[in-house]
């Protein structure tokens, strides 16, 4: 079972967790007890394209730090994405405002534009949350 908490929302068994302009924002896998994060966003809609595959930066000026159960992506020391593994749950937090997108999380919700998503359970779907496109 694939379970990810984003803000206070739970997304279970969905092929793509968050999709922006038809591009899946992130995915992860565990290989040899190591978290491997992939993160992809195009420009536009972002003011910077980012392409990370299995913890390797393919294009962009971001930094990724990772260890066994955590991965963090930063731009100029500002965290834009972080993923922690906690048993069978992955906990994601994000702040894409430095990229020019009003998409971020806090302890209460996931905010997308003017919408606030809080305490939702999204299950068994192709795209958990889809923005644009």
Description:
The protein has 133 residues and is mainly β. The protein is 0% helix and 59% strand. It contains no helices and 17 strands. It has strands spanning 3-6, 9-12, 16-20, 23-24, 26-31, 34-41, 50-53, 56-59, 63-66, 70-75, 78-86, 89-94, 103-105, 110-112, 115-117, 121-123, 127-131. A seven-stranded mixed sheet has the order 9-10-11-12-1-2-16, with no helix packed on it. A four-stranded antiparallel sheet has the order 5-6-7-8, with no helix packed on it. A hairpin with a 2-residue loop joins strand 11 (78-86) and strand 12.
Write the layout of secondary structure elements.
Blueprint: E1 3-6, E2 9-12, E3 16-20, E4 23-24, E5 26-31, E6 34-41, E7 50-53, E8 56-59, E9 63-66, E10 70-75, E11 78-86, E12 89-94, E13 103-105, E14 110-112, E15 115-117, E16 121-123, E17 127-131
Parallel strand pairs: 1-12, 2-16, 3-17
Antiparallel strand pairs: 1-2, 3-4, 5-6, 6-7, 7-8, 9-10, 10-11, 11-12, 13-14, 14-15
């Amino acid at each position: 079972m694939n379970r990810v908490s984003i803000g206070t929302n739970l997304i279970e068994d969905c092929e793509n967790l968050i999709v922006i302009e038809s591009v899946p924002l992130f995915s992860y896998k565990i290989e040899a007890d190591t978290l491997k994060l992939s993160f992809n966003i195009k420009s536009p809609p972002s003011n910077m394209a980012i392409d990370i595959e299995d913890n390797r930066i393919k294009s962009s000026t971001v930094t990724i730090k990772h260890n066994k159960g955590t991965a963090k992506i930063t731009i100029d020391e500002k965290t834009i994405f972080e993923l922690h593994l906690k048993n069978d749950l992955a906990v994601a937090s994000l702040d894409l405002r430095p990229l020019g997108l009003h998409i971020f999380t806090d302890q209460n919700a996931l905010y997308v534009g003017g919408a606030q998503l809080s305490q939702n359970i999204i299950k068994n779907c192709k795209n958990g949350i889809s923005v644009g496109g």
